[in-house]
């Protein structure tokens, strides 16, 4: 089926609708070639709301952004605002990733009202290159407001949300589901699937490999035994209590 | 400080004749306001005067004339504070300002006439400024401080020539002399200064004492008259009292705007900037409420001051009524003089290699200001590296207006992007940690044994661990008791 289609695409002047934006909208690369190929504009957007859906901390959800954050922090004299991060964004690791720490601002509003106030004002203020937030539950109309604000301020808004949110529709322009991927060699991997994008359908699973060498096995000189991750544990996976996503409800008028 | 030796000295005296009432009313014309001293009217505004109220009449008399009259008890402390504030305000015209209580300011203006293009222009500017502040003053100009003061009280035309000649027609009751001396002089048949100054000094000295002749000599400039100028310890404090209680806090915005405008002029006159000021809302029957407005960077922009103040004001809900409002600023910093863009809005490569336009930088500061104003100073901060091998001490939060010194120390081992604020204890199965499922150790150990010299000694073996669900964690084993802890997440 696809073979004749591809031939047709090559032979004639036909093109896919998903490439419609690419000529005049070229976004900066995400740092992952496989992801760039699927993203509209061949890279992360520069504004609008992007939702990253995942249920588990520690699968590489933040490392996915690291190349872009490093680029934004170095290229622009604007803030990178992190609103209520669930843990301390660890400066030595950020510095290793090439992020300019002097551009990072952490904001910790206490009340849900303040939380959304900070998000909306920071997005619209034109003084941030990206605003990253971990809203536990956020309403559609709130995301729509953030979308408008992020267009006004020319600011990229990234929301980390639980995977269950992917079932419902959202005004976000780009929605990507993240799941842990099977590591290859020494490097960890992330399996992403684009759930919503402009000018395209859902994508298939894309496997992104990091160059982190985190899976380099431990030299076998200690008395510690190296266990292999067994397949049964993979299937019966549960959320560990300590890292379960802290779900908070934010009301906003 | 004595500048009396110079011949070209010129003094301008501002005599605030309505000061007792203006500290309360600030020249609000519509409502009649009177100030009482021992149950007698001692000062009033023009509205009260128009109604026919006279000085020294009692309050009962005043009330029979009109029921709308608002009365205040005289507050000399407040008058002096206002005079100090006005002196700081007058500092924008000349650095030599003298406070002459109870109601005069003396300005030595010989040095600033050229800057303000002549005496008339200077007086005009002073008048306009005082009008804006809501104060009225009579102005007198003469060659000595005392003569200027005398001219201001007698409302005489400016004199820049010979002092004694100019004083000649002044009636002696305009001089600041003791009532007893005044009386005896009048009994002697002396009515004006011409006659007084013609008398031999040693005779006057014998008759009225050395203080009187000293006064006369200083008045005419025959003797130097050193003055104590205000020191420019920059401190801004201005207050507005309301004639009726304000119950709607939103209506405070207008007087706040006025006070912030005064602050702006104060700062501009001294080329200063401020990064913190505080408002005080008071009412006679409630405890006063103070709130601070902090800025990320020192600034002097009244529009931004007002916006931040409004953000703070919106959050005040426990102040049912207000009868006076004051603004104080204490900590100032010198104004930076950035070189302007020749090509407006274009981007230039800065010394540190970054490219940014001034407008962008201003917006960046504005966001931080807004957030600190609404969320409090602790709610937003930046990150910096710190020179320490202990993971929890290898970073620190920093205030956003400080530029931390660069840390040379570069970490080469794997570090997680999320760090737990305090390590959480893990179960263990045999030699291995567990966290609702087994953890596989991938990389390590990285031994961190550090800090025995201060109290925060750590000795740990760090590992990268993989959970069965695919997540990567940063765990360590405490060497002292073999207990496993989770310290970070490779998110």
SSE blueprint:
The complex is a heterodimer of chains A (253) and B (491).
Chain A (H helix, E strand, L loop, with lengths): L1 H10 L21 H6 L9 E6 L12 H10 L3 E5 L4 E2 L1 H6 L7 E4 L4 H13 L3 E6 L6 H14 L2 E6 L12 E11 L2 E10 L9 E4 L21 H5 L18
Parallel strand pairs in A: 1-6, 1-7, 2-4, 2-5, 5-6
Antiparallel strand pairs in A: 7-8, 8-9
Chain B lengths: L10 E5 L3 H7 L7 E5 L2 E5 L1 H6 L7 H7 L4 E4 L2 H15 L6 E4 L3 E5 L10 H15 L4 E5 L2 H10 L8 H5 L11 H9 L5 H6 L2 H8 L1 H11 L15 E11 L6 H18 L1 E12 L2 E14 L2 H12 L8 E8 L2 E3 L13 E2 L5 E2 L1 H18 L4 E6 L9 E4 L19 E8 L1 E3 L2 E3 L4 E12 L7 E10 L4 E7 L5 E6 L2
Parallel strand pairs in B: 2-4
Antiparallel strand pairs in B: 1-6, 1-7, 2-3, 5-6, 8-11, 9-10, 9-11, 9-12, 13-14, 15-16, 17-23, 18-19, 20-21, 21-22, 22-23
Polypeptide structure, described:
The complex is a heterodimer of chains A (253) and B (491). Chain A has a single domain (32-217), classed as 3-Layer(aba) Sandwich (Rossmann fold). Chain A is 25% helix and 21% strand. Chain A has helices at residues 2-11, 33-38, 66-75, 91-96, 112-124, 140-153, 231-235; strands at residues 48-53, 79-83, 88-89, 104-107, 128-133, 156-161, 174-184, 187-196, 206-209. Mean pLDDT of chain A is 80; it is low at 222-226 and 228-253. In chain B, strands 8, 9, 10, 11 and 12 form a five-stranded antiparallel sheet that branches. Chain B has a five-stranded antiparallel sheet with strand order 17-23-22-21-20, with no helix packed on it. Chain B has 491 residues and is α+β, with helices and mostly antiparallel strands. Chain B starts with 10 loop residues before the first strand and ends with a strand. The interface between A and B is large, with 75 and 67 residues.
Strand order of the largest sheet of chain A: 4-2-5-6-1-7-8-9
N-C termini distance of chain A: 51 Å
Strand content of chain B: 25-35%
List how many beta strands of chain A DSSP finds: 9
Oligomer: heterodimer
